[in-house]
Amino acid sequence: MNTPQDSSLGREVAYPSQYDPTLLFPIPRRAAREEIGVDDANLPFVGHDRWQAYELSWLDRRGKPRVAVATISVPCTSPNLIESKSFKLYLNSLNSTRFDDDAQALQRIAGDLSACAGAVVNVVVGVPPLVDDAEGESVDGLDVVIERYGPPAPEYLSSNAGQVVTETLSSALLKSNCPVTGQPDWASVSVRYRGPRIDREGLLRYLVSYREHAEFHEQCVERIFNEISLRCRPEWLEVEARYTRRGGLDINPWRATAGIEQPGRTVRDLRQ
User: Fold this and answer.
1) CA-CA distance, 66 to 220, in Å (whole number)?
2) Using omega within 30 degrees of 0 as the cis cutoff, is the peptide bond preceding 79 cis?
3) Closest residue by Cα to residue 250 from 76, 53, 19
4) What's the half-sphere exposure (Cβ side, CA atoms, 13 Å) at 161?
5) What is the C-alpha separation between 99 and 111, in angstroms, rounded?
6) How confident is the chain (272 residues) per 10-residue block, as mean pLDDT?
7) Which of 49, 112, 185, 250 is catalytic?
8) Known active-site residue 140
9) Which of 58, 93, 139, 268 could link 204 by a cystine bridge, Cβ 3.0 to 4.6 Å?
């Protein structure tokens, strides 16, 4: 079975010395989507999971190491997400593998990841630029009392139907936990939308209510998107979380209303 408990998460695993695409572990998206009332066959959003890889290496045809950084995009329409520890182990299995050229290496990576995800995965050399400014208006400075840290509390979310705005709100205070190991996952999150003005204090309390919640990164972002959509009724909405790096990888799930083709801003945070 492809459940988190069946993966290498939380287990002592030797790093591979030989190329092994079977290390990649797919986790079906359907069950988590059913939990929040999202029909996997009729998604209310578009999007992708943008991975950024900083520890990527292989050998050229003469045995000389090559190193690179890369951006890997997994479409949210893929039936599976790629479990992160298996992803790291797989990338390390390439360290002693020879390729005729860099293009062949990238094609092999893209092919293996596509097979795991069940959809075409895009792999390109390079990562987005690093920025040190908060996106839009940060809600982190609000003077609020917070008493709930889990489970996520969508009842905190509200909006003012009498005031329609187009804006971006952000927070660096998102934290959730791995559903298998319990390790903390840290992220910044941006909420870009047009619609009734979202209550800032409620949004901050809502985001902090993930602090002791156990769920994969991709699933947290889909939950945030779905609950803001239901509670605040925006005309359109875009949610992206930029998680900090672990084992040479970070992940940036992005979900948006159908019709939005790309994130409003594709960058890396300072913590990445």
Assistant:
1) 35
2) no
3) 53
4) 2
5) 14
6) 54 78 98 97 97 98 98 98 96 97 98 98 97 92 97 98 97 96 96 98 98 97 98 98 96 97 93 94
7) 185
8) no
9) 139
Residue 185 known to be catalytic: yes
Distance of CA 209 to the CA centre of its chain: 18
Q: Which two tokens stand for residue 184?
A: 């903390």
Residue in 118, 92, 91, 110 with CA at minimum distance from that of residue 2: 118
Amino acid 107 reads: Q
Contacts 24+ apart (CB under 8 A), 67-72: 68/102, 68/125, 69/125, 69/126, 69/127, 70/106, 70/109, 70/123, 70/124, 70/125, 70/126, 70/127, 71/123, 71/124, 71/126, 71/127, 71/128, 72/109, 72/113, 72/121, 72/122, 72/123
Of 76, 116, 178, 220, the catalytic one is: 178
Nearest to 253 by CA among 242, 263, 265, 261: 242
Q: How far is CA 148 from the centre of its chain?
A: 24
Q: d(Cα 188, Cα 121) in Å, to the nearest integer?
A: 24
| Token digits of residue 5 | 């408990």
Structure token digits, residue 30? 């359907």
Residue 61's alpha-carbon distances to 65, 66, 67, 68, 207, in angstroms, are 10, 10, 14, 16, 49
- Give the pLDDT score at 4: 59
The long-range contacts involving 220-223, CB below 8 angstroms and separated by at least 24 positions, are: 220/174, 220/176, 220/253, 221/189, 221/253, 221/254, 221/255, 222/32, 222/33, 222/36, 222/38, 222/45, 222/76, 222/253, 222/255, 223/36, 223/152
Assigned token pair, 252: 């940036």
- H-helix or E-strand spanning residue 34: helix 30-35
